[in-house]
Structure formats: structure tokens, C-alpha cells
Model the fold of this input.
Amino acid sequence: MRAVNSTMAAGALLLFAGCTTDNPNSLAANDPFEPMNRKVFEMNQATDRAVIKPVAEAYVDVVPDPAREGVHNFIVNLKLPVTFANDLLQGEFERGGETAARFTVNSTIGVAGLIDVASRMDIPFHTEDFGQTLAVWGVDEGPYLVVPFFGPDPPRDLAGQVVDIYLDPFTYVPLREHIWWSAGEDVVSAVDLRSRNLQSLEDIERSSVDLYASERSLYRQHRNSEIRNGKPDMENLPNL
Done:
């Protein structure tokens, strides 16, 4: 399923290639596809209002907090092998050790990841993906891109998602139902993520004059913070 997602996103990039703009504001924001991006953004917003948000709200209303937390922990734990691989590729061996420790503890004592025992043991949590690894290696983000149903996904991150499929050991589990497992994981992950951000996204929408521009800025701030592992941006410090 994730391979299908990445293929669809790559196809969208090719489709956008002929839809650039020469608007100086768009180019200054490294958003040459802004007119098309805005249309896709509006479609994604409509899909969210019609389907994703109602499902997330129902999930919060029906499923008790402890069960939702268990589902979240399980999903997070499944992604740790990919984080571990990218830790090593970035030369972050200490963080890789923390990731391996979290996965081992939560997969065993934490009952397949349902209980986050590692956090109670003060083992730090972080995420990494190959898009971040490419950034650490000096690869530029590329033009800002909004992909149907998946949101912001610049070319560097699209390429990273394809590689992450092959870094994920669960990709190689020989199950006849693997495609359904992968699809189910994607759907549950999306509902979990949306349910945990219901209020924050409402606040952003309520306070934004231009929601598209606000989300573009917030996405880049968040992504750059992930790439720096939360460290200050020393290249863009204000002049004192």
C-alpha cells in the first residue's frame, strides 16, 4: 500500500511539472506549483471535512482513551526499525542504540508495543525517515508540493518514502494478506494522527488568514526541526 501511495505521489509530481507559475511571491516561497498546490489543498481539505475528520471524531468518541493510546503505541513501535536504519545511515549511533532499546523493550515487556514501557524507563523517543537522511546528506527539499490525499510531500520526501519501504523489515514478511495489512496500517495511522490533532488543526484554521500559506510554513518549520533533531537553526539566527 505504501508503495502505491508513493507511486501515486510521484505521478502527481509529473502532472504538476507543466503547471508552474512565475509569480514572484510563489517563487520566493519555493512554491512554483502554487496554483495547482492550492487546488489540491482545497480537495484535501474537502476530503478531510467529509471523511477523515468525522471518522477521527467518532474514533475519539467511541474508543476509550487507554485503547487509543495502545493503538498509537503499537503503530509507533512498528515504525522503529525504519527509524533505527536511518539513525545508522546518518551516523547517529547513540540515537540508534536508543531506538533499538525502545523497540526491544516495548516489543517484549510492552506486549508487542501496546504499552510504552520504554518511556517509563526514560529511554528517549524520536523518529527518522530517509527523507531526513537525504537532508542530512545535503540533498535539497526540492519545490514545495501538495499531493492528493497525502498533503505536503516535496520530492526529497517522496524519494525517501520509497526507500523507507525497503528499509522496513515488515515489507519482507511473507503473508498472503500483506497488502491488506499494509493498507490497514496506513488507515489506522491516518485516523490515529488526525484524532490526536483535532483541536490543534481547528485552532490553526480558526486563526489563519491564509490557511494554505500557514500550513506550508508550519510544515517546513516542523520538518526542518525534525532534520536538525530539535536543535536550534544556527544558519538562520536573528541578528542581535
User: Anything to note?
Assistant: The first helix runs from residue 2 to 16.
